[in-house]
């Protein structure tokens, strides 16, 4: 794919910064460079000098790199200006670029789209690159690298190649059954491999819930009666004043979500409205939202104030629940009924039990996320297309006694579904 437009964009971070990188891609790159720096540098060799406007006015002094197509990220001629990262400098260079005929600002993701259309990366690599750029935790980075690095695409390509081989063997038996160098029957071998492939696809698809936890975060919902210490625990876990804490019941009305990095995993802590008989419509709406968040939780922390134990007993059966006894510092020397029935006893005042609770939370995330070294389906569309492929393989395997060409057609449809990933 060769576009007639040349595109440009600021590819580095927000301004001002020490260095700003402006990327250009398209058929007019050489002309732009010859106009703005007086030459087209040798490919992959840094050039330093003045970057000028068409009038000859120096806009900045910086480094220019040229990458000739197709040996570039986008598959087209590309260039990068490495400039001083002042807003005025970058604005002046971008304005100068926009003045060239056939040169325009890039749309969001257009450099990557051109790389995909030019065969420089497949769709799983493009998705992995997007995930890598947006990754905030170590585990998100690792999972994104399996896509951006080609491991995920390689797995799917391997499955598709196996399906092509199965079809080839079946069609060889159909077309050349009277030839001596073609096996008389490939059914046993082909359908054993098909059954093994279905098992591999099923195992892979089963990891989607793990990839969702890594990409979108592990949701921990705090629930309890008013003044049970939910907001105080939230602040203690994220180590900042994320929620308002007062002695007045019902302070929290809308759920408060705070993201933290726990052992390389993204964990979303959700503080909710205290559950009790609502005092007014606003509080009722807050409690309704509490139950909505509970239905989305991977883990629920049911907080009970040991100095005034009131427990929320009706919780949705969506996942594990830990009973947390709070304000243990206020019960020193007192006997509290059912103290042994708690998973953790904590105090945010003196820090008692918090380290153990955090270790438990980290263990819960690790258990749910599983082995991060394995390749996981990172998008819902992967799972949908793999499910389609699996369905066609199942049909082919269940058509015993049917003409082989019909069974081969189902395998072709399965391969096409995987190819669309």
Summed up:
By secondary structure, this protein is α/β, with parallel strands linked by helices. The chain has helices at residues 29-36, 87-98, 110-117, 123-134, 138-148, 151-175, 187-205, 208-216, 230-238, 281-295, 354-369, 380-397, 404-420; strands at residues 6-10, 17-25, 47-52, 58-67, 78-85, 103-105, 218-224, 256-262, 265-271, 299-305, 321-326, 344-345.
Helix and strand arrangement:
Elements (H helix, E strand, L loop, with lengths): L5 E5 L6 E9 L3 H8 L10 E6 L5 E10 L10 E8 L1 H12 L4 E3 L4 H8 L5 H12 L3 H11 L2 H25 L11 H19 L2 H9 L1 E7 L5 H9 L17 E7 L2 E7 L9 H15 L3 E7 L15 E6 L17 E2 L8 H16 L10 H18 L6 H17 L1
Parallel strand pairs: 1-6, 7-9, 7-10, 10-11, 11-12
Antiparallel strand pairs: 1-2, 2-5, 3-4, 4-5, 8-9
Report on the architecture of this protein.
The chain is α/β, with parallel strands linked by helices and 421 residues long. It has helices spanning 29-36, 87-98, 110-117, 123-134, 138-148, 151-175, 187-205, 208-216, 230-238, 281-295, 354-369, 380-397, 404-420; strands at 6-10, 17-25, 47-52, 58-67, 78-85, 103-105, 218-224, 256-262, 265-271, 299-305, 321-326, 344-345. A six-stranded mixed β-sheet has the order 3-4-5-2-1-6. Strand 1 (6-10) and strand 2 form a beta hairpin. The longest helix is centred in the middle third of the chain and has 25 residues, at 151-175.
The low-confidence runs, each spanning 5 or more residues with pLDDT under 50, are none
Number of helices: 13
Order of strands, widest sheet: 3-4-5-2-1-6
- Can you give the mean pLDDT? 87
Biggest sheet: strands, sense, closure? Answer: 6 strands, mixed
Query: Share of helix among residues?
Result: 40-55%
User: How would the global form be characterised?
Assistant: flat
């Amino acid at each position: 794919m060769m576009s007639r437009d040349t595109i440009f964009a600021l590819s580095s971070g927000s301004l001002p910064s020490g260095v700003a990188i402006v990327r250009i891609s398209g058929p007019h790159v050489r002309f732009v460079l010859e106009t703005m720096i007086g030459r087209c540098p040798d490919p992959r060799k840094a050039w330093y000098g003045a970057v000028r406007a068409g009038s000859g006015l120096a806009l900045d002094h910086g480094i220019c790199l040229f990458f000739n197509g197709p040996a570039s990220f986008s598959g087209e001629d590309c260039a990068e200006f490495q400039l001083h990262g002042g807003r005025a400098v970058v604005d002046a260079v971008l304005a100068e670029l926009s003045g060239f005929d056939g040169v325009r600002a890039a749309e969001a993701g257009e450099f990557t789209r051109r790389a995909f259309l030019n065969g420089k990366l497949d769709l799983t690599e493009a998705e992995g690159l997007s995930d890598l750029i947006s990754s905030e935790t170590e585990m998100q980075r690792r999972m994104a690298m399996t896509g951006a690095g080609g491991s995920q695409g390689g797995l799917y390509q391997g499955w598709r190649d196996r399906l092509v081989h199965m079809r080839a063997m079946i069609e060889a038996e159909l077309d050349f059954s009277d030839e001596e160098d073609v096996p008389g029957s490939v059914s046993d071998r082909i359908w054993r491999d098909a059954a093994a492939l279905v098992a591999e696809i099923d195992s892979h698809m089963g990891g989607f819930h793990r990839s969702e936890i890594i990409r979108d975060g592990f949701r921990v919902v705090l629930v309890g009666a008013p003044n049970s210490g939910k907001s105080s625990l939230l602040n203690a876990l994220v180590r900042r004043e994320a929620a308002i804490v007062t002695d007045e019941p019902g302070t929290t009305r809308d759920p408060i979500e705070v993201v933290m990095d726990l052992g390389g995993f993204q964990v979303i802590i959700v503080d909710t409205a205290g559950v009790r008989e609502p005092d007014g419509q606003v509080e009722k709406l807050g409690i309704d939202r509490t139950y909505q968040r509970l239905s989305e939780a991977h883990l629920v922390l049911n907080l009970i104030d040991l100095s005034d134990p009131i427990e929320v007993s009706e919780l949705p059966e969506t996942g594990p629940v830990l009973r947390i006894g709070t304000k243990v510092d206020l019960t020193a020397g007192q006997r509290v009924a059912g103290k042994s029935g708690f998973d953790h006893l904590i105090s945010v005042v003196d820090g008692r039990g918090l380290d153990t609770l955090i270790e438990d939370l980290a263990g819960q995330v690790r258990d749910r996320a599983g082995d991060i070294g394995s390749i996981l389906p990172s998008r819902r569309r992967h799972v949908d297309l793999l499910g389609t492929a699996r369905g066609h393989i199942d049909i082919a395997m269940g058509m015993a006694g049917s003409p082989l060409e019909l069974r081969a057609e189902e395998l072709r449809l399965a391969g096409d579904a995987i190819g669309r990933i």
